[in-house]
Write a structure and sequence with these properties.
The protein is mostly helical and about 110 residues long. Helices cover about 60% and strands about 5% of the residues. A two-stranded antiparallel sheet has the order 1-2. Strand 1 and strand 2 form a beta hairpin. The mean pLDDT is about 85.
Length: about 110
């Protein structure tokens, strides 16, 4: 039969008891949990931060330079051309690899 070690209640817990270090750790009582509603800002603070966000976003939008119609059409044309070229290339590679696999299988 094994001996059971009985620790009296209220004593500090030992960490790494099997390693021979014998370090004693004092346990602290748990902190009371605050509800999630208590962590929310008040409506006045929320409105203030929302207003500040809108003002700063508006200031940043004033700094933006939007492209002209000509620039937009030019870049759109480049994108469409490159999509066509890449799709043709990938189609040819796919066709070649499928022919190669069918040749190897037969």
């Amino acid at each position: 039969m094994k001996k059971q070690k009985i620790k009296p209640k209220g004593t500090p817990k030992e960490v790494n008891a099997g390693t021979g270090r014998g370090q004693v750790v004092k346990l602290r009582p748990a902190k009371p949990k605050t509800s999630w509603r208590a962590k929310l800002p008040s409506p006045g603070q929320w409105l203030g931060t929302a207003r500040q966000f809108v003002v700063e976003a508006w200031q940043e939008l004033k700094k933006v330079t939007f492209p002209t119609r000509r620039e937009t059409l030019g870049t759109t044309g480049v994108v469409l051309f490159l999509v066509a070229v890449i799709s043709i290339f990938l189609g040819l590679v796919d066709f070649g690899l499928s022919r190669l696999v069918s040749y190897v299988m037969h």
